[in-house]
Amino acid sequence: MQLSREALLNAYRAMKTIREFEERLHVEIQTGEIAGFTHLYCGQEAVAVGVCEHLGTQDRIVSTHRGHGHCLAKGCDVDGMMKEIWGSREGLCKGKGGSMHIADIDKGMLGANGIVGAGAPIAVGAALASRADGPGPDGMKVAIAFSGDGACNQGTTFEAMNLAVVTQAPCIFVFENNHYSEHTGVSYAVGTNRDIASRAEAFGMKAWRADGTDFFAVHETMREVLDHVRGGGGPAAVEFDTERFFGHFEGDPQRYRGPGEIERIRAERDCLTRFRNAVTAAGLLDHGDIDALDAQVLGTIEAAVAAARAAPRPTADDVLADVYISY
Amino acid sequence: MQLSREALLNAYRAMKTIREFEERLHVEIQTGEIAGFTHLYCGQEAVAVGVCEHLGTQDRIVSTHRGHGHCLAKGCDVDGMMKEIWGSREGLCKGKGGSMHIADIDKGMLGANGIVGAGAPIAVGAALASRADGPGPDGMKVAIAFSGDGACNQGTTFEAMNLAVVTQAPCIFVFENNHYSEHTGVSYAVGTNRDIASRAEAFGMKAWRADGTDFFAVHETMREVLDHVRGGGGPAAVEFDTERFFGHFEGDPQRYRGPGEIERIRAERDCLTRFRNAVTAAGLLDHGDIDALDAQVLGTIEAAVAAARAAPRPTADDVLADVYISY
Amino acid sequence: MTKMMYRDAVLSTIMEEMARDPDVVVLGEDVVGGMGTAGGPEAIGGIWSTSTGLYDRFGPGRVIDTPISESAIMGAAAGLALSGKRPVAELMFADFIGVSLDQLWNQIAKFRYMFGGKTRCPAVIRMAYGAGFNAAAQHSQSVHQILTGMPGLKVVMPSTPADVKGLLRTAIRDDDPVIFLEHKALYATSGEVPDDPDFMIPFGHARLSRAGGDVTLVSSGLLLGMCEAVADRLAAEGIGCDVIDLRTTSPLDEETILDSVEVTGRVVVVDEAPPRCGLAADLCALVAEMAFSSLKAPPQQVTPPHTPIPFARELESAYLPSVDKIEAAVRRVLAWR
Amino acid sequence: MTKMMYRDAVLSTIMEEMARDPDVVVLGEDVVGGMGTAGGPEAIGGIWSTSTGLYDRFGPGRVIDTPISESAIMGAAAGLALSGKRPVAELMFADFIGVSLDQLWNQIAKFRYMFGGKTRCPAVIRMAYGAGFNAAAQHSQSVHQILTGMPGLKVVMPSTPADVKGLLRTAIRDDDPVIFLEHKALYATSGEVPDDPDFMIPFGHARLSRAGGDVTLVSSGLLLGMCEAVADRLAAEGIGCDVIDLRTTSPLDEETILDSVEVTGRVVVVDEAPPRCGLAADLCALVAEMAFSSLKAPPQQVTPPHTPIPFARELESAYLPSVDKIEAAVRRVLAWR
Ligand SMILES: Cc1ncc(C[n+]2csc(CCOP(=O)(O)OP(=O)(O)O)c2C)c(N)n1
Ligand SMILES: Cc1ncc(C[n+]2csc(CCOP(=O)(O)OP(=O)(O)O)c2C)c(N)n1
Ligand SMILES: [Mg+2]
Ligand SMILES: [Mg+2]
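^ inputs. structure came back:
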């Protein structure tokens, strides 16, 4: 916990922003106003923020279908994202992508992705671009592939790991093990008895493992990982054990979850609560500091929803635009 | 070496048949009579035979672009194969498949394959069929996926290994590490420092490793592997270290090979020579036995070439047949 | 006859065929739906509810839940089919042929031909396709145009629960590989379904769902309903539409199409795939070549534009064919010259 | 002008563009060709000899040899392109889109649209396609019909060394993703190539390689030569063929085709892909719709039959389009009515 007060506030604000963004979407989706498939990141905030707090815009990330948290942590605009999810033509992607396809290349966010496992090879490409550019004053720019415990079984993810090792690309495979791929348990689908990190290690790179509901564990682990990768040590993998508070997608009845499971993880494994308890116990921040941020974030989200609701809708003419730069 | 005299003779005959089949093709291809891409198996005979000698027709194998050895070892007809490679309508596949697509389902040979890595998932499917049928008097029927050191980097192969572990399918992944994928060295392309077996093991199955130029090592290792898999122990992997005597394909100038490399492996790592030396030194067979087989095999191949050359050619009408059973 | 939903027609046909033939096996992601969870294996039974109850009844040997590994799923289906089984594999979304095409295209479709006619590969690959749910560019696509172009595959696109029943049964009993395309927007539609446990609809036989004689509309799947709506609208004005439901795009019932066009001389083909090298073009080219002298107007295609599928509601509906767009095309061909 | 082979036009264009623009990077299997061997890295330089010398000159940062992992190669190209580079990726055989299609179709092609026009993805994916070498069903295929149907991709099919040069340069400098299809049977053909280091041929502009006025022949790649041969044969009889080389199938130069057909009224489209939902059908449907009143005969397609590609010499040549088959089709349209 060698973080400055400001860094702590930033980290909490970032996590809380994701949380409220998602909790609010959970409510709004029930009104039927939001179209499409939405996968909420609630419960996993410490991973996105603990990873991205180390990154600059020159570092790149590639995300998943459950991408809101990664986008927000990497600096995508809250209003722009909300408008995108609402399908406005003022959305970050002009209403063409929606929840599963938010990207902001200028922020180093190369896209959420509806295809499970598609991100990892793209991250290797981004890492190869960094490799070609060579190290800057802070070492190598890195590329990060966020993947789930389900995605880690997709052939593309395996190929990407091998290619990264072969080319010694500065790529980091962040596996968010939330114990489920859709409705299937990780203990079933990952043949190695849920152990994703060791399997990654067997591809020939260093691998780490940490509690993904503990912001400080994530942050510290990533410091080590980044030291290794920025220093030219080649690719790395990290597995974070985390929790998914909501269903796979909005509307999921979750009959596959154990009785009381969600209550238990909300009570014991909530990264925001754990953060608050840790920093207040250590006297780094007080409850007032955090309460103030909570209020601020709620205001931000409220404003974003109002803006999204009021934002202009796309028109039929927009369909034809932006397929090609020129054709 | 607890093999009977008959078993030893059979094994040698099988290896020698592959060797002469391939050596003869190497010569014939230069005449221009044989069309298409041909990949010769010379040097790797001990693997195909050491594996397949344990199998019955109820066991199934899936092969690669370098498939002649696997086909012959699994019992495909020599004449039918030669005719197929010659493109005759009497070929095993009526001249429609050619070298890269020889199959004989009745023999449990589910096909050579032009797509690197495509075989492994198919083998898992065959193993799932065995799993559904349950064990017979000799235990589970098995399915074997032959793959090269290059194929082991294809996403499909990784997916297949995980699926086999998850379903505990009686599937055996036989990796023939001949040190090259086309013109690229295994030490470059396999990120784990050429170690294919350990990577397979990390997928959650037992893995073995043996010298693929030593028939007895292959045969003994496969006995253990098969005991494990037939007994219901789930899938397994084996890596055999072997040698490719010819180029990747016929016509390959092989500028990527070290000086004297081919001479050395022919002298030191020829599975046929090693077999002959071992069995004669141990007094199990004498040179006369082996010389007699050599002569017999040469006759078989000579006859097969003559038959292929004389066999009827397909006609334009044949193009349209056998796309569907009914349409 | 029993009234049931399209999705239940899928499930009940699989259930019946599994009961009839022990070689039928099912595999795919979440087809059981809770493996390795505290909620127990059959917590879901397939995200489209098209496999609910199969695992309970037929067990793990015949109902195989898989990791997210579509190439391995399709490959396993191939291996099962070559080994005497009749796999019915589910690809959750048709868009995922992107990560598994090789096994469909270069393996399953080609085995019989490459192996000289000496094998059969009775695999059924089911996939949910189509737009209408704002699922955007990667979860809304049609792929029949790609798969129809691949020799060795049969491609089925049922438009009603009864057709699901008759065509899926034919697919499962067929000895060739069959792609079975289920439109997401049809899953919850209902219709009467014959009770005959051997009810089958042969492949390659289109259905004339409206007979009119003035203009021919050709479509399949979800779009059939739109064409019928247009026909009904125009009937009120005394304009008669032949509405043809293709049922299978491979094999193709050329005869039914050509017979109709020879009478009407005017044809509109309606399809949800992008316009280039699509099924609409395929059929218009067929008609132009084979019914040239009968044609009174240029064959018209109603398809989405050459763009990916957009997310927002306004964009997706502007993108998709609609009753209005089809009607406009019909009026265009009727007004020609 | 310099005389060079098609394959050398590929190599020299890549070489020149890499020298000009440090963002151009090359990747693929064996594009270096001896990594990790005693013979040294540049023992091969690409199995088509289209990257020989690149590694020596530009080094490992810009010339990246890969394992056999086509999805990862295409994905890496995607990531490089999103990160400011201009990747030129080689897919050794076009048939291998089967194991890598998702990255082409659902990623590279769609980024710009899905991301609201706020990104560019200047990736060039080169692939060797086509039959003629008895390489059988999995190493001989044409894929332009599949990729042309995918909005977001541009698809290029050069027929001569000069076109390789002009079109590949355009491709590398283009900010959209481009599929560059090289016919295997053209690699060793020679032709004059302009020396201008900025020689570029714009996409979407077909070339009229023969002007005749009696009948229109449309093709691309290897088949252009066959169409020209037919034109030359028929010219001797006083029959004039317009022979159109498409150059790019997406964007498509509709105008050149329609202008010609408006004069000739007769069209034969020749293509190497299978017949269903192929490019030949695409163009015949276009002509039937847009040049309907000019047509004097049904638009004709010359394509292989709906079968996989067979191995044996006799079978493969019976399968493929040929000068004789094209000539027969031309005579058919000329004789119509
Ligand atoms: C290639 C592909 N296969 C299947 C799916 C359907 N699908 C979407 S999310 C998902 C589960 C992903 O699990 P995981 O990687 O653990 O991510 P999580 O949802 O837990 O964040 C599946 C199967 C998909 N989108 N893409
Ligand atoms: C998907 C795919 N990628 C690439 C190729 C081209 N290719 C054919 S064989 C081969 C090398 C295979 O190496 P390995 O698996 O070690 O087998 P070996 O040739 O050594 O027997 C390659 C790259 C292919 N046929 N299929
Ligand atoms: Mg998960
Ligand atoms: Mg090898």
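Chain A has a mean pLDDT of 97. Residues 5-271+289-318 of chain A form a domain with the Rossmann fold fold (CATH 3.40.50.970).
thumbs up if we can close this ticket
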